[in-house]
Automatic annotation (TrEMBL):
Presence of the UniProt keyword Cell wall biogenesis/degradation in the record: no
InterPro entries the record matches: 6PGDH_C, 6PGDH_NADP-bd, NAD(P)-bd_dom_sf, Pgluconate_DH
Limits of the 6-phosphogluconate dehydrogenase C-terminal domain: 4-143
Catalytic activity from the UniProt record: 6-phospho-D-gluconate + NADP(+) = D-ribulose 5-phosphate + CO2 + NADPH
Gene Ontology molecular functions: NADP binding; phosphogluconate dehydrogenase (decarboxylating) activity
Associated pathway: Carbohydrate degradation; pentose phosphate pathway; D-ribulose 5-phosphate from D-glucose 6-phosphate (oxidative stage): step 3/3
Entry protein name: 6-phosphogluconate dehydrogenase, decarboxylating
One BP term from GO: D-gluconate metabolic process
Length: 156
């Protein structure tokens, strides 16, 4: 069974092009779209002869991914992003990553705190070097609760 390195949700032009770009760079990509007929059309046309694999459902998509699972959302900003995140979170586990690749305004979506923290940890979004002490890096816990803040300690 071929396992995908990453999944992409949203098969509009930008999603299709990003999938083919990743495929061209050696990644196995799992393609999913809410309208499943778009997945079939994409596999039979633009992705024909590639290593791109399709998914019939979110559960199917998640099952085809290597762990930790990486999922790019390339859907319309706003409610669609929240809806997909709500459906994905119960299917994922600590260490899995959801990337909102659309043009969402950060105030438009309300991620669960544990998912937000896990993503910040993955991207190092709150690890910084002090100008007063070069070479010394500080990791700020944005949850305000102290303790271990690595993504593996969160149930995303």
């Amino acid at each position: 069974l071929l396992r995908a390195d990453i999944a992409l949700i949203g098969l509009a032009v930008m999603g299709q092009n990003l999938i083919m770009n990743m495929n061209d760079h050696g990644f196995v990509v799992c393609a999913y779209n809410r309208t499943v007929s778009k997945v079939h059309d994409f596999l039979q046309n633009e992705a024909k002869g590639s290593k791109v694999i399709g998914a019939e459902s979110l559960e199917d998509m998640v099952s085809k991914l290597k762990k930790p699972r990486r999922i790019i959302l390339l859907v319309k900003a706003g409610q669609a992003v929240d809806d997909f995140i709500d459906k994905l979170v119960p299917l994922l586990e600590a260490g899995d990553i959801i990337i909102d690749g659309g043009n969402s305004e950060y105030r438009d979506t309300t991620l669960p705190a544990n998912l937000l923290q896990a993503q910040r940890d993955y991207f190092g979004a709150h690890t910084y070097e002090l100008l007063s002490n070069p070479g010394h890096f500080v990791h700020t816990n944005w949850t305000g609760h102290g303790g271990n803040v690595s993504s593996s300690s969160y149930n995303a």
